[in-house]
Amino acid sequence: MKDTPLSNCERDFLLKAIEEKKRLDGRQTYDYRKMKITFGTDFGCCYVDLGKTRVMAQVSCELVAPKESRPNEGIMFFNIELSPMASPAFEQGRQSELSVKLNRQLERCLRNSKCIDTESLCVVSGEKVWQIRVDVHMLNHDGNLMDAASIAAITALCHFRRPDVGIQGDEVTVYSPEERDPIPLSIYHMPISVSFSFFQQGTYLLVDPCEREERIMDGLLMIAMNKHREICSIQSSGGIMLLKEQVMRCSKIASVKVSEITELISKALENDKKARKAGERCGFAESMPQERITALKMDETSVEMTDVTDRANDIVQKAEAPLQTVPSPVVPAPGVGQVGQGLQNTWGLEEDDEEEEEENDNSGEEREENVTRMEEDQHDKVESRGGDVVEISDSEEEEVVILQPEMIDKAPKNTGSSSHQKGAAASKKRQKK
Known about the structure:
The chain is an alpha+beta fold. β5 and β6 form a beta hairpin. α2 packs across α3.
């Protein structure tokens, strides 16, 4: 499923706003959106909210055989998943051009910059090393996925703890967190990506573009830098040519933004470390507020009890007199039943109506008796005549033959006589015509 394209009116409105140095969310040209970093209950799980863009990064590890070319170094693996939950334009189980581009840029930013000491991940040279896997899941897409993914990945790597390992001869023992404290990864620096979007062939520049601004931009420049002002990677996309002065200007802006984001990450890691050490709520439990409905204690409210009797007397005097009680209930409307002797029948039926119904029932019974008597008299007449009775109707189409029950058994024997009678009846009918 593809995204709904922007209309010409929306495109013109956004470009006009950018020319006037205004943005839809009220930011300035070089402002970042509000950033929030949270951690999960386990080590290595990190959530990053960049405006409405939401990304989750999860770090895991396992012991594998090293590469033949580098037997003393561990392995770093990155995977970015663009699920349909983030945007309807993403398809499940199929790598799009955007996912491949983001994955390569993340590898250049973190693995090629040598921000992690991979030699410290070696357990047995040439046999077993740690493979660190970083899975980045896009939960909501509102633009600038690369910056959010790089921040979430490096924060999750700083927060991750791998199990401790003991070696005795050829045996390798992996200790659980209960037996030995996990060991953090050795990270030299934290490279962070900063994105710049260009409009009107490089005339206008915006930092941290949102999803609508990405649709109308002419080109994109991503610079990965650490707080020491060292450029780790740089990539330009889109059909636009940039000047040297523009790239230098973007690098200066990126150095300021990277130092601010690095300080925010360090503060978030320190707060999480203090909370875990003090045994306070951390991770998902911290984000869930405590509901009072599940608590057993309640706040008591003080009640003034000095002049209770005086207030009660005033209320009783000002109150209206109670209604007089009636010994026998009075039915307000028909349709309400009462039980008892001498009470009025109020089921919605008056006595006259009941008498009429009884008379109707009696007349109906008399009619049924008269009908049964007529049938019996007719049956007696037929029996006295004997034989079959043929009844000829006035209509020309049908001929009705009524056979008495006593003569049904004899009918198969006298098939000739019955057919002869039918023929006679038909001839009489023709003569009448």
